[in-house]
Write a structure and sequence with these properties.
The chain is α+β, with helices and mostly antiparallel strands. It contains 4 helices and 3 strands, in the order H-E-E-E-H-H-H.
Length: 142
């Protein structure tokens, strides 16, 4: 189990140090922001829907390693998916961070299972996800 914990910590540290899809997306047709006033984390998600599919997604923000790594990983996981698939993935991720129970198959999302032991950090882990869902639910920006 220690090897698995080390792997999960490496995933989080890697996404924090080398975030994927960081930056503003100039062709975004959906944008939403979220912040966690308790700890100062903030995240803005830019995405471009092509029909019902997430064609492109980026984020900007600042905060703790958990919030930034989670936002980075989220962009890699929902890019190319439909809105319904992204919502289902969020629900699975939320289950992981609130219960600590990860699916049987090893997934990078399981790296956040340890967050459940620190309830105040659940908001950090889900901040970018909530911003993405808010963006998906908005009408297109012009």
């Amino acid at each position: 189990m220690s090897d698995l914990t080390d792997l999960y910590q490496a995933v989080i540290l890697d996404h924090n140090k080398r975030p994927r899809n960081r930056g503003k997306l100039p062709v975004a047709n959906r944008v939403a922001s979220g912040d966690n006033p308790t700890c100062g984390d903030n995240c803005t998600v830019y995405l471009r829907l092509d029909g019902d599919r997430i064609a492109e997604i980026c984020f900007e923000g600042a905060g703790c390693a958990i919030s930034q790594a989670s936002a980075s990983l989220m962009t890699t996981q929902i890019k190319g998916r439909t809105v319904a698939e992204a919502e289902a993935l969020f629900n699975a991720f939320k289950e992981i961070v609130t219960t600590g129970k990860a699916p049987d198959e090893i997934s990078d999302l399981a790296a956040f299972a340890g967050v459940h032991a620190f309830p105040a950090r659940i908001k950090c882990a889900t901040l970018g996800w909530h911003a993405a869902l808010d963006a998906l639910r908005q009408p297109p920006s012009s």
